Amino acid sequence: MPETLEHAVKEVGTERPSAAAPAPPAPPLLELDGLTVKLGRRTVLDGLAASLRGRAIGLLGPNGAGKTTLLHTLLGFHLPSSGTARVLGHDVRTATREIRQLLGYMPENDAFIAGMSGVRFVRLMAELSGLPPEAALERAHEALFYVGLGEARYRPIGSYSLGMRQLAKLAQALVHGPRLLLLDEPTNGLDPPARARMLELVRDVRDAGEVAVLLSSHLLRDVELCCDEVVVIKNGRIAVTADLAAERASNRRFLELEIRGPQAPSVPVPDGAAAATPAGPGEVESEPLEAAFAAAAQGLGCEVAWSGRQRLKLVLPEGVEVADLYRLAAEREVQIRRLAFERTSLEDIFLSAMETRPRAGASREVPVGGL
Amino acid sequence: MAVYEHAYRRYAGALTPLAERPRVLVRYTLREIFGSRLLVAYLVLCGLVPLAAAIVIYLHHNLSALKALNLPLDQILPIDASFFRAVVRGQCWLAFFLALGIGPGLLSADLRNNALPLYLARPLSRPGYLWGKSGALVMLLSAVTWVPGALLFFLQAALEGPAWAGHNARLLGAIVASSWIWIGIVALATLAVSAWVKWKAVARIVLLALVFVLHGFSGVLKHGLDVRYGDLVSLGQMNAVVRAALFGQAPPDAVPATAAAVGLAVFAGLCLLALRHLRAYEVVR
C-alpha cells in the first residue's frame, strides 16, 4: 500500500534527487519565525518561533490560546502582521497556493456542502485540489471506505450524524493525498466510540508514514495518543515545545523499585552502599541484601537513590536493561516486588506550561516572565 | 488501491492546471441547477419569446406563408432596432427572474453550512471561488439574453442578406453589450446579497426590493417630484437608458446615458465591495 514520498504532488511537489548528488536535508514540517498575527487591534499570535519536524505534532492550549488562528495563518486565511511561517519549506506569505496543495484541512466547526451525497462532496473536494474527475471519484470512494463511511457514501451529507460528518471532513482532508494534515479539534462533539475511532484513524494515517499530522486540541489525551511532538500555546505565545517521543524514551530509563530480601534484623547501611542512600549513611536503614543489590546496581553503572526503607530509584545507563536488574536480584536472592517506570505525562508538561514553571526536558521558547 | 484494503495512500497521479479549478465549481453548480425540474421548465419558457421573434422574422421573409395566414406585411412588427431592443428587454427581465431563482442559493448555502473554509483551504482563491460559483449563473443568463438575441440577428441577416448585416452591425454590438451589462449587474447583485444573507428566501426578497422598490422610488422622484435624475435610483431604469443609447434610441426626457452608465458602475463597485465580506472565517475584532 504505501508508496514512496518522492511521489509528491507533481505540480508543486519536490524533485527527485539524482543518484549521484547527496539528498538535501528535508525542510522542517513547520518553521515559525517570529510569527505575529493581529486581528484588528488584538494580537492573537505573538512572535511564535519554533522548528518542528515530528511526524505528528500536537498543538495544545486552552480555548482562545491561538491554536486555530495559527492553523488559519498556515492556510493563508490570515496574513502575518510580522514574521513568517514556512510549511514544508514554503513561505505562507508568498506561496499560499503551493502550501494549500500540500495540506489537508479538517476544520473545527461543522462544515459541509448542502444537498450533496458523501461521495459527491468528497469528489468535489478532490477535483478542487486538482485531481482529474475519474481519479477524484475513485479516491473519494477509497477515502470514504477508509474512514468507515463506505456504506453511507451515497446518503446526503445533511442526513449524517455529527460523528459521520466529522469522518466525512477527515475524508475530504485526505482525499487528495496531502503531505500535511491539519486537524482542528477532530474529536469535538464525538461520543467515546466515535472519538476512539477518530483517534485510531489519525494514528493510522500517521503510521502510514506518508503524511504528517498537525493536531490542534485542548484535550491532552488526544494529543498524547497521537503525537510525538507537542507545542503548548498560551495567550498567543509558545509556552513550551516538547518532544514527546524523546520524553517517553527518557521516561523508560527512570525506574522505581520496591525490593525485599529474606527477613533479617536491621543493620546499619554498610559503608560501600553509603553513596546510594539519599540522605547520608545511617539515616535510611536498608537490609544488607537490599544494600548489596543496590551496590551491585551501582556496579552496573546505574545511578541509585533510596527513597524509602526498601524502595530504590534508579536511572539505567545505556546498555543496561531491566532484565539485568532481575538477574542481579536473583543472584542476591532479593525479590523485586514492584517495578515502575516513572513517567512524566503530557499533563505534567501542560500544567507546567500553564503555571509557567520551568521543567526539565522541555524547551521554553519564550521567557517565563512573558507568559 | 482497491477500496477493500481500507488503508491510506497518497495520490501520485497528475494534477489539473490551477486555472481549471474554478471550472469544477461551474460544472457542479450547473449539474445542481439542472437537477431542479422547475428551473429547467423556466429555462424552456425563456426560449419562447426568442422563438416567437424567430417566427416573426421568418414570416417577414416568406410571402407565401403570410398569404397562407392571411396577414398583410404591414401588420407584422418591423425588423429593426426597436424589434431587437424589445426582445433583449424582455429577455433581460426573464434573466433577472432566473437569477432570482438560482443566485441566492449559490453562496448562501455554503455560508450557512460553513463550507467556505473547505473550498478556500484548497488551491482555490476567493476570486476563483466566486468566478466558479457565478460562472454557471452567467452561462445561463447568457443563454437567455444575448445568445438568442445574436441568433435572431444572424437569422435576420441570413434571410435579408449580407448588406443588411453590414448596415446593422451596430445592432449585434448593442444586443451583446446591453445583455452583458445586465448580466453583470444581476450576477453581482445576487452574489453580493447572498454573501450577506444566509437564507435564500430572505435573499430573494432583498433582491426583489433592490430592483422593484427602488424602481418605484425612482418613479416617485421623477414623476411625483419632477427630479430628472430620479432614474439613477433604479437599476432597471438605468439599464434601460444605457440599452436605448446602445441601440441608438435614447429618449429625450431620460437622464444622459453616461450618467446611467456611471450609476451602474457605482452599483457594481458597491457589490464588489460587499463581496469582500466573503471570507473563510469571519474575524471577530
Provide structural commentary.
The complex is a heterodimer of chains A (371) and B (285). In chain A, α6 (192-208) links the parallel β7 and β8 (212-217). Chain A has helices spanning 67-75, 96-102, 118-128, 133-147, 162-174, 192-208, 220-226, 244-251, 288-299, 322-331, 346-355, and strands at 30-39, 42-52, 56-60, 82-87, 90-91, 103-106, 180-184, 212-217, 229-234, 237-242, 254-260, 303-306, 311-315, 335-341. Chain A is 32% helix and 23% strand. In chain A, α3 crosses α4 and α4 packs across α5 (162-174). Chain A is elongated. Chain A folds into two domains: 30-242, 3-Layer(aba) Sandwich (Rossmann fold), CATH 3.40.50.300; 249-341, no CATH class. Chain A is α/β, with parallel strands linked by helices. Chain A has a six-stranded mixed β-sheet, with helices on both faces. Chain A has a four-stranded antiparallel β-sheet with strand order 2-1-4-5, with helices on one face. Chain A contains eleven helices and 14 strands. Chain B has 285 residues and is mainly alpha-helical. Chain B has one domain. Helices cover 72% and strands 0% of the residues of chain B. Chain B contains 13 helices and no strands. Chain B has helices at 21-33, 37-46, 48-60, 63-69, 81-112, 116-120, 126-144, 146-160, 162-167, 169-196, 200-224, 235-246, 257-275. The radius of gyration of chain B is 23 Å and the shape is globular. The termini of chain B are far apart. In chain B, 37% of the residues are buried. At the A-B interface, α2, α3, α4, α5 and α6 of A face α1, α5 and α6 of B.
Give the secondary structure arrangement, pairings included:
The complex is a heterodimer of chains A (371) and B (285).
Chain A lengths: L29 E10 L2 E11 L3 E5 L6 H9 L6 E6 L2 E2 L4 H7 E4 L11 H11 L4 H15 L14 H13 L5 E5 L7 H17 L3 E6 L2 H7 L2 E6 L2 E6 L1 H8 L2 E7 L27 H12 L3 E4 L4 E5 L6 H10 L3 E7 L4 H10 L16
Parallel strand pairs in A: 3-8, 3-9, 6-7, 7-8
Antiparallel strand pairs in A: 1-2, 1-4, 4-5, 9-10, 11-13, 11-14, 12-13
Chain B lengths: L20 H13 L3 H10 L1 H13 L2 H7 L11 H32 L3 H5 L5 H19 L1 H15 L1 H6 L1 H28 L3 H25 L10 H12 L10 H19 L10
Helix pairs in contact in B: 1-7, 2-5, 3-8, 5-7, 5-8, 5-10, 5-11, 7-10, 8-10, 10-11, 10-12, 10-13, 12-13
